[in-house]
Amino acid sequence: MNYQKLFLIKKSGELWSLAVENEPKRTRKAKIVDAMKKGENNPYVVLSIAKIFWKEKKIEKARKWFIKNEFKVREIFGIRSKYR
Fold this sequence. Notes:
Largest sheet: none
Number of strands: 0
Distance between the termini: 45 Å
Structural class: mainly alpha
Radius of gyration: 14 Å
Oligomer: single chain
Shape: globular
Helix content: over 70%
Number of helices: 6
């Protein structure tokens, strides 16, 4: 396999977000740390982390993660706000 392609796969935020969401609860924290380091604060990873907090009923933490990268998420998913 071409090393450049392998490098891009390791930095793929979409793959890291799936890995975080599918990780068992007791090992999820380590996977989140790896995803944040290797994914370089990718919006897909950030959304996955926020969803995990939301599912665990940690609403304030989820809100912070959603707000933290709101503009990156809007840019990637093409969401336009009426209020801005």
